[in-house]
Fold this protein.
Amino acid sequence: MGIMREKKSPSSSATSPCAHLRTAYHNCFNRWYAEKFLKGEWNKQECVSEWEKYRECLSQHLDDKHLSRFLEAEGIIDFTNQAEYKNPTGVSN
Amino acid sequence: MVRAYSQEHTYKHPWERVTAASWRKFADPENKRTLSHILEVDTLNHKLDPSSGKLYTTRAITIHAPGPWFVRKIIGQDICHCVESTVVNAQSRSMQLATRNISLQKFIEVEEKIRYEPHPANPIDWTICKQETSIRIKPLSTLASMAEKIEQRCVDRFQQNSAKGREVMERICKYLEAESRGISLRS
């Protein structure tokens, strides 16, 4: 993401302060997905501390009003207490 | 007015590798140049169901979608937020993604569904990707008269971007393949 684009659309970089925490979480997730989840070890979710740090940062920086209002209304996200997962697009499997 | 189209693509890589690539598609920094319309992808929620081996994930995707000047003027922004829900079933080897826009819903509704499943002709080594996209311009929107044109532009843009997405997916699959070879050579 270049400086030009960030200038053009400032809200796009709303969660950028969390970029390093996001990367740490992604790296952990990708490893867990390939090495554990795909191999049948799906009894335990890992990367919990990476996820909590990233989520904490997101809750402070997800300041796009429209986005957070929508997400709260849909019950997708609730930073005050851990919301139950709710599928907003009706994917069922 | 609804435009819908579907696409199919065969990846000559196993399902496990293709779905791992799908998670990396927006996250790897080296893909940022190809998928420059994707500004941010953040994971909002995830849940693992340990009894069934299903993984549910919700992500927010911020897309840069510059339109003609009059659209920008009416809408007042050139970025669009989407929500993507993913279900991976490790037991049955299926991955489903559904993405829809949450901004600009007054004007347009875009929904994209992608399924990755083992290819019936070669379920161990190949993966089939089925993609369905529907684009609907709201008939009562202020853009109604221009809607037809805009709809076509959206379809064009989506098709361009999904071609870019496939290109990135193929590249990550190759990378993961090389990586797994490297590991098995060392062991």
In short: The CA atoms of residues 178 and 184 of chain B lie 10 Å apart.
